[in-house]
Design a protein that fits this description.
By secondary structure, this protein is α/β, with parallel strands linked by helices. Helices cover 37% and strands 26% of the residues.
């Protein structure tokens, strides 16, 4: 059964002293799925993602990512995932091409593969004329699309996106999601956190965390039906109110 899933968790928990950041969470992410991981600041989203990326050891529970154990096979996990954070992670004092070559090398691509991937990526993003421009000179939307494309340049099984569209305009956000759909269609599993509730509608399934616990998990349509809500924002607000009662 696990072969059908890119990510599995069972009772995954992380404590910092007496504080429980992620409290006994259990879920599975199907291969090729776009899985939305939602919650307010402090809900435990980033802690959970860091554990799944092999950057933070859980306090208890179980989890596998791309078939690898989060306790004992973190290096294998890192080789099989891509990651893009809200805080722009490319080097702004390097050119577009230099960034592609640098990260291609980090991901273990050969020189030949990097050369091919660079040409394909520049053409896909219509950045051929900006190949020798410093990344710092690009508009934010272009930076975000470039960052995402580089995060999957090595064809990872899973890509983790932490608030990937923060600060960009609605049109650019929509274009960015076109890239996500394209990656998912090619078989990449997408695990995305976002605070834009309209983006939750684009996901195959959505998990909503409140105070370190998963309070709801289903397709956007099913969640709206369950909570008698017109939008995912309404679902989120209802869960937040319940938590504060």
């Amino acid at each position: 059964m696990e072969a059908a899933y890119a990510i599995t968790t069972d009772g995954l928990t992380k404590k910092f002293g007496d504080f429980i950041a992620t409290n006994n969470i259990t879920f599975q992410v199907k291969k090729g799925e776009i899985f939305g991981f939602l919650g307010a600041n402090g809900a435990g989203k980033t802690t959970a993602m860091r554990m799944l990326c092999g950057l933070l050891k859980p306090s208890s529970g179980k989890a596998t990512v791309a078939g690898y154990d989060v306790y004992t096979q973190t290096e294998s996990i890192k080789l099989n995932i891509g990651y893009m954070s809200q805080r722009f992670s490319l080097y702004e004092d390097l050119t577009v091409s230099e960034n592609i070559r640098f990260y291609g090398g980090i991901y273990g691509l050969t020189r030949s593969a990097i050369k091919t991937a660079t040409a394909e990526l520049l053409a896909k993003l219509a950045l051929e004329k900006e190949a020798k421009s410093l990344v710092g000179s690009l508009p934010l939307g272009w930076k975000q699309k470039l960052s995402f494309s580089i995060a999957i340049i090595h064809n990872p099984a899973i890509v983790f996106l932490d608030e990937p569209t923060g600060g960009v305009d609605p049109i650019t956000r929509r274009q960015f999601w076109d890239l996500i759909y394209e990656a998912a269609h090619a078989g990449v599993t997408v695990f995305v956190t976002t605070h834009y509730m309209d983006e939750a509608e684009y996901c195959d399934r959505v998990s909503i965390m409140v105070d370190g616990k998963i309070k709801a998990l289903d397709t956007p349509a099913a969640l709206k039906t369950t909570f008698g809500a017109a939008t995912m924002n309404d679902v989120f607000l209802k869960l937040a109110r319940e938590a504060n009662q």
